[in-house]
Amino acid sequence: MPADTTATAAGVIHDLGYRRYDGPRLGRAQIVRALAWHSFRSAFGFGRGAKAKVIPVIAFVAMLLPAVVNAASMAQGNGQVIGYDTYQPLLRDLVMTIFVAVQAPELVSRDLRSRVLPLYFARPMKTSDYPLAKYIAFTAACLVMIEIPLLLLYLGTIVNVHGGAAVWAQTREFIPGLLVGLMWAVVLAAIGLFLASLTGRRAFATGMVAIFFLATYTLAEILLQVENHGLRQQAAQAAQSAGPGPFHIVPPPVPMAEKISGLFSPFTLFDGVRMWLSGHGTGQSDNVLYPGSFGAVYAVVLVVLLAACLAGLFARYRKAARLS
Amino acid sequence: MTPPQPDGEAGPVIETVALSMVYPGDVTALDGLTVRFAPGVTGLIGANGAGKSTLIKILLGLLEPTRGAATVLGLDCVKDGMRIRQLVGYMPEHDCLPPDVAASEFVTHMGRMSGLPAAPARERAAEALRHVGLYEERYRLIGTYSTGMKQRVKLAQALVGDPRVLLLDEPTNGLDPAGRNAMLELIEKIGEEFGISMVVASHLLGEIERICDHLVAIEAGRLLRADTMSSFTKASQTLVVEVEDGLAKLERELARRGLRPRAYQRSLLVPIGGDDTYDAVRDSVADLGLPLSRLERRRHQVEELFRDDSADLTLEAADAG
């Protein structure tokens, strides 16, 4: 450190008990890393009281259960019951909704509430480094929530299969599953942090995130039914106006309506993109049906959603730096 | 030992040149402010809304000024904001502490954010909390602290990164008189004993007087006056006379002797014409048999900064020409 402490000044300071720091200083990247690590820990309640660990621990254990059940089942000679691509869809949707809704505010709303942000902004980093560190941390936390259970599923499966070929086959299914998990984590973290950063009140933030996921999911489901209902009515009307003639050709747009409905919720988007990329559906465990080439639209909407949330998150803190 | 920087000792800690800040909506916070802050403790004084906080934000490189330039330790506030923030500690005016974290943990984290590695951050956090008098209580949650203790934590987090300059925004905010005194003593100690230059923003003139070496007064974003504390409070050509009783009688007597006394609060102010002024006052008091309680040359009060009629206070405003 360049310091203007002359020999005498340093001596005086030493006598009075104040010691200057002339050791190494971390650069901006390392400060961001320290903040990300601190935030990652707080996503699981570490560095907080015992109460803060309750929800993340329960959520994590719940996510592990299917993998444990699968391993136990396979040990008794049954086949694999859980897939790497969708894991246990309903459980994963629900648990990740809860985890993001409860823990995203832990990362960002607390700091807004206690108005600690000006202290961060007054430190040797850029304004955008704060949301960046939070985003890295929360993406990593979501990855832990999603990928560790997948890893356990993989390990529990390969100890029960025999032969290198079987293990290789498992590995080939496992890797796309990891990538799907990455997609989930990257998008969920962005949505959760952006929404949570809008308010310093934790309960509001949690409610907002939870309502966003539940409402969009419900909307997607309702639209699906309304579309189907409307189309059925159209078909019935068409049939009526044509009279009891011979067989009428009813156009089959139902799948398209269903595809469009799937655009309204992150979880249906995840499924749509996953199936589009893999080139096949996986049956009844999906939220939406195989979208075919329409899957590209799913991908575009998902990327736009991600970009919008990240842009919103960073804009939020640019504004905070000016006003705080 | 690193050699002192060429202009480290004598040069200004902070310098602004024609600094203007106009917020969207045509709100002018700073209006052509040109001022230098010398090493030591400088009071930045002004009413609420005078532009103190805006100036601090510009100095930290968090706001880009509309016009003009500012430097801290010779570093440009617009270009070298990051470097400045490495050398400057900032204590905001408002609450900025999480209630559910222990003070030691919070200050350690803030030390990390100042660029200290993990172990030094812990050490320096403990030390900073000791310096502000919170060593014993450092493991308590901040939410359980009194207002005075919270202010000390705010100061400790500004101190933890070993800054060369401290910017303190209204450090006595919300404190009772005792807490106020304690905080001011602490600031004085840090300035004198730790050798850290400080800018103490305040709207309370009386406080600034006690702890500052220099004073910068701003009003409506413009420089009102900037000088050393001693020149503000230097002895004036006025005598202060206080008697326990019979002030009006004394005033008449002094006027009769050709002096021009002026009642001020519970004393008389008498312009000094020469040594015979003292004699005249002494004789008047003695003749009337009044109980004299005070007779001294008056020192200027900082309050007079804002009074237009303080004729012999025309001090030179710092002009960066």
Short descriptors:
heterodimer, A: 324 residues, mainly alpha, 72% helix, 0% strand, B: 321 residues, alpha/beta, Rossmann fold, Alpha-Beta Plaits, 2 domains, four-stranded antiparallel sheet, 10 helices, 33% helix, elongated, disordered N terminus, disordered C terminus
Shape of chain B: elongated
Average pLDDT, all residues of chain A: 86
**Fourth-tier CATH superfamily name of the largest domain in chain B:** P-loop containing nucleotide triphosphate hydrolases
What string gives the helices and strands of chain B in order? Answer: EEEHEEHEHHHEHEHEEHEHEEHE
Radius of gyration of chain A: 26 Å
CATH class of the largest domain in chain B: Alpha Beta
Written description of the protein model:
The complex is a heterodimer of chains A (324) and B (321). Chain A is an all-alpha fold. Chain A has one domain (23-323). Chain A contains 11 helices and no strands. Chain A has helices at 7-15, 28-43, 51-75, 89-113, 117-121, 129-158, 164-196, 202-241, 254-261, 266-278, 295-323. In chain A, helix 6 (129-158) runs antiparallel to helix 7. Chain A is globular, with a radius of gyration of 26 Å. Chain B folds into 2 domains: 14-231, P-loop containing nucleotide triphosphate hydrolases (Rossmann fold); 234-306, Reverse transcriptase/Diguanylate cyclase domain (Alpha-Beta Plaits, 2-Layer Sandwich). Chain B contains 10 helices and 14 strands. Chain B has helices spanning 52-59, 81-87, 103-113, 118-131, 147-159, 177-193, 205-211, 229-232, 247-256, 275-288, and strands spanning 14-23, 27-37, 41-45, 67-72, 75-76, 88-91, 165-169, 197-202, 214-219, 222-228, 235-243, 262-264, 267-271, 292-299. In chain B, strand 4 (67-72) and strand 5 (75-76) form a beta hairpin. In chain B, helix 3 runs parallel beside helix 5 (147-159). Chain B is elongated. The chains are: A mainly alpha (324), B alpha/beta (321). At the A-B interface, helix 1, helix 2 and helix 5 of A face helix 2, strand 6, helix 3 and helix 4 of B.
